[in-house]
Amino acid sequence: MTMTHASRLLAWYDRHRRTLPWRAPSGERTPPYLVWLSEIMLQQTTVATVGDYYRRFVKRWPTVEALAEAPLDDVLSAWAGLGYYARARNLHACARAVADRHGGHFPEDEAALRALPGIGPYTAAAIRAIAFDLKASAVDGNVERVIARLEAIETPLPDAKIEIHLSAAELVPAQRAGDYAQAMMDLGATVCTPRKPLCVICPLSRSCRALKLGIAETLPRRSPKAAKPTRRGLAFVLARKDGAILLRKRPTKGLLGGMDEVPSSPWREGKFIVADALGDAPVPARWTIMDGLVRHTFTHFHLELSVARATATTDRLARLLPGSAWCTLDLLDERALPTVMRKVIEKASLS
Ligand code: SF4
Predict the structure, then answer these.
(1) Is 39 a catalytic residue?
(2) Average pLDDT over residues 201-219
(3) Which of 4, 63, 163, 209 could crosslink 152 through cysteines, CB 3.0-4.6 Å?
C-alpha cells in the first residue's frame, strides 16, 4: 500500500471512526492503561459485551496502580461472565508487574511490553501504536481478513499468518500509526466484514486484489478445524432452605482457575451415565436430576453438564466439603462465577 492508500484509509477514518468507550476523541491519544485494558477484554469477546465491563473496571480501578492493589478475587468477580478467565489473572499479574517494574507506567519498548504477563505480539503492537503512536502493526482477526483480501492471499489460515503479518507490517505508515491501526480495525469491523463485505463504500476498493478477482467473500481461507471433543459431567447444586448455594473455589491453575463453582463430577469424554456420576456427589443428600443439559463451549472442548439439585437439611453439610461455603442469592452476583456455573445454577432453580 502506498501512502496514498494509507491517506485514503485515514481520511475515511476521520469521517467514519466508531465511537468506543475506550477511544480518545479525534486528535488525542488513549492512555496506555486504557488501551491495554480494552484490548485484553476484547480478546475473544465482542465490543458490545466489553463496553459495560470496561466502564465498570475503569470506574473502580481508574489507574494501573489501583488495579495492581486490588485483591485478585475482586478482579475475578468483576470479570465473571467475560470468559477466558486466564485473561483476568494475567490482567492482575500484569498490573502488578507494571506497578513494580515500571513505576506504574507502561513501557513503549516492544520487548519490555511482551515481557509482561498476558501481553502477546498483538496487544504489544496495539499499545505501541494506539497509546504511543509508534509504527507498529497490530493484526487481529479483523485486520487479518482485510489484509488477506487486499493482497488476495489464498493460503489458508493458520499457514497464511506469516504472509499476512508481513504484508500488514509493510503497509503501516510512518505518520498517524495509532489512527491507522484503529482505522484498520474499524474497516474490518464495519466494512470489510466476514460476510458480504461492503466493497462499494470501501476506501481501499481501488487497490483490493480480492475484489478485482471476485473472491473477496471467500477470503481468508481456513484449514478445516479438528472437531472439538465433548466432555460430560454432573454438577451438584446444593441449596439451603433460604436458597443459599454451596460454592467452592477451583484450583488457581488451569481451566477457570481461581473461579467459584458448584461441585461436580469430573468432566470426561466418552460414555456418561448420570446414575454413576451421582456417586461423585460431594455430600449425602436426596439429589434430583433436572431435565435437560447445560451446554457450554470452551476453547478446546464442548461441555455438557447434567444438573442435580438437593436441599440441605443442615448448615453443617458445608463442613464435609473442605474449601466450600454457602453463598446467599443476593451475593451471587458478586462472586467470581463463570458463565457455565451461572447456567448450572439457573437450571437448578427451574422446578
Ligand atoms: Fe474488503 Fe471489499 Fe474493501 Fe477489499 S474492497 S478491503 S474486500 S471491503
Answers:
(1) yes
(2) 96
(3) 209
